[in-house]
What we know:
Strand order of the largest sheet: 1-2-3-5-4
Shape: elongated
Largest sheet: 5 strands, mixed, barrel
Number of strands: 20
Low-confidence stretches: 14-22
Distance between the termini: 133 Å
CATH architecture of the largest domain: Beta Barrel
CATH superfamily of the largest domain: Nucleic acid-binding proteins
Oligomer: single chain
Number of domains: 4
Order of helices and strands: HEEEEEHEEEEEHEEEEEHEEEHEE
Mean pLDDT: 87
Radius of gyration: 36 Å
Structural class: alpha+beta
Amino acid sequence: MTKLMEKTNQDSEFAKLFENYDYNFKVADVVKGTIVKKENNGFLVDIGAKSEGLVTFKELSNVPFNEPEDIVKIGDTRDFYILKEEDENNQILLSLKRVALAQNWAKMEQIKKNDECVTAKIVSLVKGGVVVEVMDLRGFIPSSQLRTGIPYDGLIDQEIEVKILETDAKKNKLILSQRQALAEQREQIVGNIIDQLEIDQVVTGEVVRIADFGAFIDINGVDGLLPISEISWQRIKHPSDVLQLGQKIDVKILKIDNELKRISLSLKRMGENPWDKVEGKFEEGQVIKGTVNKITSFGAFINIFPGVEALLPAAEMSEEQINPFDILSVGDEIDVLIKKFTPQEHRIGLSIKDIKK
């Protein structure tokens, strides 16, 4: 009976001892452990689990070493990174060299939790965005979260402020946003910057985004809109025909909306208005040569002077009803008669059929 009681007490003590172990070990956790034994392929580490964890020699350090004991010794207590919860031998695999990496992931989590910005360096362009380096970690910024909206070579090696969208140490996943960081900064500085600007003021800016309808120009940290109609006096198909991302240009301020905090810009008005030059150069009834710039169902736009287009209506092409696409091609040089001439309104009407009258 006494022996049975002793065995029961021993089992109870053993059960209590077992309860002290924490089995909730997860990949990417950092745990404290003590080196207890050297094996052929690494060291056994007591981390408070039901069996010792194993740190292999290759996971001891990023720095080359001659002997494992140059890095750790029996009895040393260190922080270890959990690589794998359990292997085929029911051992938790550990890493000493990845502790700093894990600590940086923890910092990323805290920065995200605090909704703070962090500095990242763009290291390469990939499909759909850019790869950045931040606190010795690799992250990804999707194209949609770039200020430019498009990755281009000039971004490489740039250091930018970003916000953290998603962080997952287990999957080695770090997704960032430059646009969110800029939006926050814009709120802080836009008022002060706009207060310093005036209509007709000439400022230097950088092309940071190109769209079908125009381009966005960074003016001292605030994005101003340069509409496609204000890029050139000549007709252009797309802003990228004239502008490049990262290009520095001088622009004139057309409008300032203090309520909406928006700036409208012009590039074409940095030069002389070509319509002013044609006022005394042409007159109604004059026959001149022009180049077909664009063809539509209702007529064609004819370049008669650099930066000046005149309209040749379909009804003025022939006495008969015709399709402009059937008789004209872009780039054709043709003779036209100036039928209506009002350069002050930026309007010139042309005719072909009246030349013969």
